[in-house]
Here is the input.
Amino acid sequence: MCCATRVSKVAKTLMVAGSLLVGSVAVYASDYVPGSAQVELDGNVVDNSGPGDPVDWVNIGTGTNEYQTTVIQDNGPTTDRVDQDIFDKGSKDDMYISKAEAEAAGGGGYWQWKIPNNHKATDKVDIVHASASIYEEDGDMIIYLQADRFDNRGDAYLGAWLFKDKIIPVSTGPDKGTFYGSHQPGDVLMLLNFINGGAEYTIQFFVWTETGLDTTGVDGTLFGSVNTNLSPVSTGGPTSPYYNYVTKDKSAPAGEFPTFTFFEGGFNLSKFYRYIEQDVPCFTTVMIESRNSSSIDAALEDFAIDNDFSTCSFSVAKTCVGSAINATGTGVDYDYNITLTNTGFGTLDVNWTDDYGTPNNGSDDPSGSVSVSNASPAIIEVSILGAPLGITNGVKATGLGVEKTASADEPNECPVAVDQNVTVTKQCKTTLDGNESSGYTVVRVDFDGTVCNDGNTKVGNLSLSDSTESETGYTADLNQTELLPGECASYSGTYYPNTPGITCAKDNAHSDVITVYYDENLTGESNSTLPVSSGTCPLCDENCQ
Here is the structure.
């Protein structure tokens, strides 16, 4: 294989013809109704329909409803006929892919490959180009396939594998011409047998199971086409991968496929999997092959493979649903949704891990695995309890060996209202305190009050400052130094005014001011930056004359 060109886009809508039947049914090119599909199956690569849908292989990347396309030039990017790999040693479809897979199964044949003599495959089975394109209609996966060969002499037997292995995608390995990867239950093989010079063809489907290839097969009357006449190669000029097409038939005019060298078909794989009562799997690799007969155990000849042809993909999003400071005022309870959306086909298994707002600590990370169909997204609810303010909560999701991340940050998406409200009350009572030893009477002020946390966050490191702290005999006692939301602390104290001459006098304007300092635990702010709260009382109560 030389090279592959890929076009990927979001799929939308598709009209597709055909049905699925059991039994041996031959279908003909005349069964295809032009315009009934999104890709022209008319025996050439040229778009004959004009602007818009349907498209053809020369402009396959422009289809409105297209999901992904690969165009593989198997014989090199120049007019030189060079093929880097073909099947070897009697490789067959019902064999294992790799030596490792065969050994794990207890033995059996496995695929092998080689570089052909003079870098040329056998003429009539030599694949020059191979293409595959995925379309979608109402969740159904439609795959279109195309291949052209070097020589039109003899019948053509083509096949197409879709492989699921995501751990080790199917590919050629350097180890003595062996392959990497393994079959997975649900791998599908489609055989297109063009007989009578390509004038008629049959299409069969086979599925790989736990015990190997199910050789019973299912025949499908879907749609296909072969060029029964000379057909144009391309109108795209040198920019088209088909432009340098090389053929053995030198009588064919330049720029045209000789008769019976160009083949294409389309299949509704979703309909097929519904018929066999299985979910559509996620494929990672497409391989188009040529064979030496229509038999299921025919020897395989040439192949073109693309192991980056994923039919499934996904997106991950993280959104904040709500947030509130917890009852103790020591942290924030956040509610998030992780949304996993299958933007491809089939049912995709996705593993997810949430960092719980602590990206540098994996010990508290919740995780799980979920199967996501393309019919509806999977929504996972995650609650983070008692978190600090200002966290960024991230999620990592992995599917088909691809890792994606998303995050939601509190300040922008999940704001929390912090109410720092500490209130103070103070009452004073003046009394005459007789001192028998000195023989005179003095004024004593007794005070008490409350410090209440009327906000929604815990406060700590409470301390009092009184405007009368310099007075004789001053004492003050606060019974606790931290408060939860809604909680109050009490305090009391006493002192003897240093200037009693003005303390107890009617209409005295002097007052006793107490100030409370505190730290707000949730925000981490200290009393040097927080507002303070004060309470006052007159130095002379109602009993003063």
Observations:
- Helices lie at 99-104, 269-275, 410-413, 500-503.
- Confidence is low (pLDDT under 50) at residues 5-36.
- The longest strand covers residues 422-435.
